[in-house]
Structures are given as C-alpha cells and as structure tokens.
UniProtKB/TrEMBL annotation:
Alphabetical keyword list: Cytoplasm, Lipid biosynthesis, Lipid metabolism, NAD, NADP, Nucleotide-binding, Oxidoreductase, Phospholipid biosynthesis, Phospholipid metabolism
GO CC term (a single one): cytosol
Residues at which NADPH binds: 17, 37, 110, 142, 266, 290, 292
Record family assignment: Belongs to the NAD-dependent glycerol-3-phosphate dehydrogenase family.
Catalytic activity field: sn-glycerol 3-phosphate + NADP(+) = dihydroxyacetone phosphate + NADPH + H(+); sn-glycerol 3-phosphate + NAD(+) = dihydroxyacetone phosphate + NADH + H(+)
NCBIfam families tied to this protein: PRK00094.1-2, PRK00094.1-4
Transmembrane segments: none
Name of the protein described by the UniProt record: Glycerol-3-phosphate dehydrogenase [NAD(P)+]
Length: 367
C-alpha cells in the first residue's frame, strides 16, 4: 500500500499551469507554496489574489506566493517543477541548491531540450542527482483545471514498474494521493519516457493542426494529422524505450486530441495564426505565455534524426518555423510523400512512388 500523502507541496513556476496545479494541491488538502519568477506576479497576487498568467481564477489565501525560492521549498515534501522546458535545467539547478536531500520532484514541463535532445527527466537526473523523480502529463488546460472541470492525467515514475505492489507504493502513487481530488484524477504509470514523449510531441502536432485550421481546411485533414501524428509520436517513444500502451493513454492520444482540436491551446492558436498568414515572429510577438511546440519542433526533429526516426509532420512544422519553408510547399510535400503501408510491420518495406510525386520532387525531398 502507498504511504500517507505528502503534506507540504512547493510549486516552482507561477505560469498558468503552475498556478492551476497549486490550486489543485490546495483542493486536495495540501499546504501549498508557489514560486513566481516575476516580481509583478508576486505583487499582483498580494494585491488582489490574481495571477496575470491565469487572471480569471482567484488564488486561495492559504497558498503562499513568493519569489524567495528557499522559503518556498522549505519543509516541502514534494516539489512540482512547472517552468517551460527550455528553462528547466537552470531552475532544477537553482532548486537543488536549496532543497533538502531526498525530497522528490515531479516534472510538469512538456518538451525536449534543444541541441542536447534530452528529456526533462534526463535534465533533472543531471542537475538533481539521485533525487526521486516523476513526470505528470495529460490533457489538462490550466484554466479548466483551475475552474474545477473534471480532468484526468498520468503520473509516471520508474519505481512503479514490477507489478501491482510496486505501483501501489511508488512515487507516482504517492503523488496521485497527494494531488488527487474530486475533480482532478491522476493515474499511475511506470513509463516516464512514454509520458514525456507524448507531452513534447503533441505540441508540435497541435501547431500542424492549427495551421490546417488557419488555412480553412476541414475535419478530414485534422483527423489525418492527429492519426499520422500519433504514429510519429509512437515511433519516437518506442525508439527511446517508451511503451506503445502509454502512447494510447492520457499523456499520448488524450493530450493530442485535446490540444489539436481547441483554440484554447496556445500551440493550436499559434499554428492557426500561421495558417492565416502571419509569420512565426508576428504570431508570437508580445506573448508572455509559451507555445512549447514552437521551440520543440526543433528539438523533437533534431532528436528524431539522431535516432533515425521518421517524423514527417514534425519535420514540416520545423521547416516552416525555422527553415523558411512555405506552408503551401510543406502541405504539398506531405501529401505527395511516397505511398506506404499503414501497418507498422509492413511500413518499412512498402514504399511506392506517389502518382504525382514527379510533379514536385524538390518539395517532396524536403520532408
Ligand atoms: N498552460 C497549460 O494549460 C499547461 C501547460 N503545461 C506545460 O507547463 C509548462 C509551463 O507552462 P505554463 O505554466 O502554461 O506557462 P505560461 O505560458 O503560463 O507562463 C510562462 C512561464 O514561463 C516562465 N518563465 C519565463 N522565462 C523564464 C525563465 N527565464 N526561467 C524560468 N521561467 C521562465 C514564467 O515565469 C511563467 O511561469 C510548459 O512546459 C507547458 O507546456 C502543461 C499542461 C497544461
Ligand atoms: O498541454 C496543454 C494541455 O494539456 C496545454 O496546451 P497548450 O500549451 O497548447 O495551451
């Protein structure tokens, strides 16, 4: 059986998701402190209990919001890391310097580190050596979590592997007990890699779906992008040692369908703006909130190439965002790729030239 829930929870990162998770832990009965990087966020919360990153939902008075990292993590039994992926390394290092030994951390950023191709769990292992760690991910718009909409997520830790007893006493189980409440339902997993890859790749695919929407495309293209995008996600997860089953769970297909079909998603909306004719710079201008897929298109495709994993939709998004490929050429190139088998077993062995590929070999070569 799992032990008693962790009592005090420190949340690092007071963006929309960190704030919603702090509210979640508070609803679950935990004592909660929240670290904000921006002085104006600390001031806004002190003044009217509202965070500009999530302005529609008041923060309960019992949640202590501060810019003092040592004070926030003092006496914490669990630390939730919720800064965007490209800032996690620096933040993990800073937290490690002030956190008591043995206190576990749970990673909530969705992404892969640019250039190194490292997963967030690799970064935490490097910057917080020996510290117990888990990953939390799944279909969870911060605003809906803050509102108390029923939400299910996956929490994964390696020690959950080895059967029911291991899963029940794992770090993932303890975190589920510490954060679960009547509207927030976490599930235990022993596959952190599969969970992480799901969260990182779905943001890139959400940009692709947003682009299609912005172009005025209908439901067929979206379903095709989601399904073939899932095939890409699965290939990368498996290449990294993740499990197929995880990809069809909350952190895979669950988050993919959520993010690829709602303008609530920052990534989908970013893609939509591109499809409507904005440049990436114009679409991101003035935004303080993150669209993780914009950066992670690069890191996901860098990693996929290194591993020899084919991810044509993610490659197309990366080429549009970072290599100046026009959306028109990217769409044509995707649609005129060679004919392949859908089945995983046959897929590597069946490659037929697309009937119209000869019309535009140059674009076809790019993805
Ligand atoms: N918002 C959502 O609905 C969800 C977000 N996530 C993930 O959570 C992570 C955090 O996203 P949000 O809370 O939505 O962020 P946000 O877009 O609401 O806010 C931006 C965050 O980035 C932080 N930041 C900016 N520059 C920084 C720096 N140099 N060092 C450290 N932190 C810096 C800000 O302090 C702020 O916390 C992302 O990886 C995102 O994909 C996951 C699930 C849901
Ligand atoms: O990860 C999310 C929901 O699960 C949030 O998606 P966006 O970052 O695209 O808004």
């Amino acid at each position: 059986m799992a032990e008693a829930p962790l009592d005090k929870v420190a949340v690092i990162g007071a963006g929309a998701w960190g704030t919603a998770l702090a509210m979640t832990a508070h609803r679950a009965g935990r004592r909660v402190s929240l670290w904000a990087r921006e002085a104006d966020v600390v001031e806004a919360v002190a003044r009217d209990r509202r965070n500009p990153f999530l302005p529609d939902y008041p923060i309960p008075a019992e949640i202590a919001v501060s810019g003092d990292l040592s004070a926030v993590v003092a006496q914490a039994g669990l630390v939730i890391l919720v800064v965007p992926s490209q800032f996690l390394r620096g933040m993990a290092r800073a937290v490690e310097a002030v956190l008591a030994a043995g206190v576990p951390v749970v990673i909530c950023a969705k992404g892969i580190e640019t250039d190194s191709g490292k997963l967030m769990s690799d970064i935490v292992a490097e910057e917080m050596p020996g510290r117990p760690q888990a990953v939390l991910s799944g279909p969870s718009f911060a605003s809906e979590v803050a509102e108390g909409q029923p939400t299910a997520v996956t929490v994964a830790s390696e020690d959950a592997a080895g059967g029911a007893e291991a899963a029940s006493s794992s770090l993932a189980a303890k975190i589920c007990l510490a954060l679960g409440n009547e509207s927030f339902r976490p599930y235990i997993s022993d596959d952190p890699v599969g969970v992480e890859v799901g969260g990182a790749v779905k943001n890139v695919l959400a940009i692709a779906c947003g682009i299609a929407d912005g172009l005025g495309m209908g439901s067929n293209p979206r379903a095709a992008l989601i399904t073939r995008g899932l095939a890409e996600l699965k290939r990368l997860a498996e290449a990294l040692g993740g499990r197929r089953e995880t990809v069809t769970g909350l952190a895979g297909i669950g988050d993919l369908t959520l993010t690829c079909s709602s303008t609530q998603s920052r990534n989908f909306s970013f893609g939509r703006a591109l499809g409507q004719g904005m440049t990436p710079e114009e679409a991101l201008a003035g935004k303080k909130s993150v669209a993780e897929g914009a950066v992670n298109a690069r890191s996901v495709t860098q990693l996929a190439r290194r591993l020899g994993v084919e991810m044509p939709i993610c490659e197309a998004v990366n080429a549009i965002l970072h290599d100046g490929l026009s959306i028109r050429d990217a769409v044509q190139a995707l649609l005129t790729r060679p004919i392949k088998a859908e089945s995983r077993e046959l897929e590597p062995h069946v490659i037929l030239p697309h009937p119209s590929a000869a019309n535009d070999l140059q674009a076809n070569d790019m993805v």
